[in-house]
Amino acid sequence: RDALHRVLLNEAEIEDALAQLGFRTVVLGEMSVSDQIRSFSNARVIVGAHGAGLSNLMFAPPGAAVVEISNTTIYHMGDFKFISAQMGHRYAEVVSGWYPEDRSTALGQKSDYLVDAGQVLLALQDVAPEVFTR
């Protein structure tokens, strides 16, 4: 929510879909480092847009499920997939190619984008089916 670049434009829609499954939204830029570490170390399932804050994955317990949301201009950056593999996390990535019409040309790594909430839920179901059986 506080990203300056690569803004997930329909973040509220994703948050609403996840809230119905019991997820809590955190804005890392509003948290101290120790609160970020505490939040990730207690998380069993993490869904987040690609960004520096996902580096906190290293504090999540082994076996945590991670869904990274990215777009076609940055999906080649495998940082969080690598961290997840090293830490024993279950990992899925949702890669979106959906950009606002006025931004369809001159796309760059800082492009704002949208993602289909249904795709996020499908990825979540793949790596954390337990979320749907509560």
Query: Largest beta sheet: what is the strand line-up?
Result: 1-2-3
Helix content class: 25-40%
Question: Approximately how much beta-strand content do the residues carry?
Answer: 5-15%
What is the terminal separation in angstroms?
28 Å
Number of helices: 4
Q: Specify the structural class.
A: alpha/beta
Uncertain runs: none
Report on the structure:
Helix content is 28%, strand content 14%. It has a 3-stranded parallel beta sheet with strand order 1-2-3, with helices on both faces. The protein is built from 4 helices and 3 strands; from the N terminus they run ααββαβα. It has 134 residues and is of the alpha/beta class. The longest helix has 11 residues, at 117-127. It has helices at 11-19, 33-41, 79-87, 117-127, and strands at residues 45-49, 65-71, 90-96.
Secondary-structure blueprint:
Elements lengths: L10 H9 L13 H9 L3 E5 L15 E7 L7 H9 L2 E7 L20 H11 L7
Parallel strand pairs: 1-2, 2-3
